[in-house]
Amino acid sequence: MYNRPVQDPSKRFATIVMALGIVVLVSAIAIGERAGDRAIGQVTEKRLESIAPVSVAPAAPDATVAPYGPNWKRTDVMAAAPDPGFPDPRVPAEAPPPPTPIPQFTPPPFVAPKNVAAPKATPNLSLPIWRRAAPLPTAAPSEAPNAQPTAAASPQPEQTSRP
Question: What's the predicted TM-score (pTM) here?
């Protein structure tokens, strides 16, 4: 009796899929946060257990007192291990070993080879194979007698006196 608009079935399916995707995304975020908090908590607890308490040795009884107090470099115990990347500036560095000498190479003296054939010219590879060995023979020009053309051989126009 009421005229309600009927939704298109394809739009209804898309809406349901979108709503389910949002629910899955929010639940995944919540589960990921809990898992991350648990992992960080476990790592922190293990680190606190693995760190040994730092103990500072008391001052030696024979420590001399300078005008400004005892020398802390000699009386205090350092709790950190030395780092090879950052050496202690108070300790002088060891000198590196001397470099090994580079061997000098002396080439043997040059001896010219004996009985070597004379070099040949490089063949022209752009020529066909049958032309590479020797050029094709051509006819030599022959000497012909100086023959003047006769009137019968070549017709000439008649000469007129009028221009």
Answer: 0.27
